[in-house]
Q: What sequence folds into this?
């Protein structure tokens, strides 16, 4: 029987793939056989991530790019095609957060979060569409958040960007279904990353509140995203599109 989860011969671009959830997903895709382009702005961090993948026999490259800049995004896609010959999978994972109440957030801070979290997904998706259409199909995985479902006083721009990710995902899923491109979103819960370490330092009592509400009784780990990445990038999900799947240990379904 054909292995529906086999990604041998496939090529993935993972933005923000040099750490956190992005790296967890990149590892999963690589383990399933994909070649991976790790995209980020920190050359040293990206180089270390690629070296780690290559030690395990993965065909991986580092692409330094600002994914909020269209010209840089176009170069990112061209470089990946030049190195690997194709693009089959895009993971839009680049993201930042500025934790302030709505009345305290400066317009330039709002713009920075929206550009990094939402506009980058638009630019990258638009850039890979021709290559995927020419290849006969593709997979786009957008990283939303549990903040796509509900709000928080300290994350107005972040929540807006992640809610936008879900609606953007649905629009692309409908627009590109005829091109055999499936577009889905993942909504991470509270995951143990550098980003959430800062949140725990800034928000008193956050750690204990997360544990108390999460049925799985733990914070998520980046490796918890390997399986969902492989599923949404593989033939196993060929009839799944426009969805937004929480990966949160049950946090979002608790009352």
A:
């Amino acid at each position: 029987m054909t292995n529906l989860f086999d990604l041998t011969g496939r090529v993935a671009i993972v933005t923000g793939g040099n750490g956190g959830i992005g790296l967890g997903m990149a590892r999963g895709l690589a383990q399933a056989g994909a070649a991976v382009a790790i995209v980020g702005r920190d050359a040293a961090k990206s180089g270390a991530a690629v070296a780690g993948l290559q030690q395990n026999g993965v065909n991986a490259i580092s692409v330094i790019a600002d994914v909020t800049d269209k010209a840089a995004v176009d170069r990112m896609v061209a470089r990946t095609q030049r190195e690997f010959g194709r693009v089959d999978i895009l993971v839009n994972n680049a993201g930042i957060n500025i934790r302030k109440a709505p009345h305290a957030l400066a317009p330039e801070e709002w713009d920075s979060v929206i550009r990094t979290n939402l506009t980058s997904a638009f630019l990258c998706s638009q850039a890979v569409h021709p290559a995927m259409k020419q290849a006969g199909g593709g997979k786009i995985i957008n990283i939303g958040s549990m903040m796509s479902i509900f709000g928080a006083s300290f994350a107005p721009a972040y929540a807006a960007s992640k809610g936008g990710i879900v609606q953007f995902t649905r629009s692309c899923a409908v627009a590109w279904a005829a091109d055999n491109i499936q577009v889905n979103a993942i909504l991470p819960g509270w995951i143990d990353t550098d980003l959430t370490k800062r949140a725990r330092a800034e928000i008193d009592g956050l750690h204990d509140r997360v544990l108390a509400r999460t049925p799985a009784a733990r914070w998520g780990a980046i490796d918890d995203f390997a399986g969902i990445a492989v599923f949404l990038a593989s033939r196993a999900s060929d009839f799944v599109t426009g969805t937004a799947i929480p990966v949160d240990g049950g946090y979002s379904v608790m009352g």
Summary: The helical segments are 20-31, 43-55, 70-84, 107-135, 156-175, 194-202, 206-213, 226-233. The first strand starts at residue 11 and ends at 15.
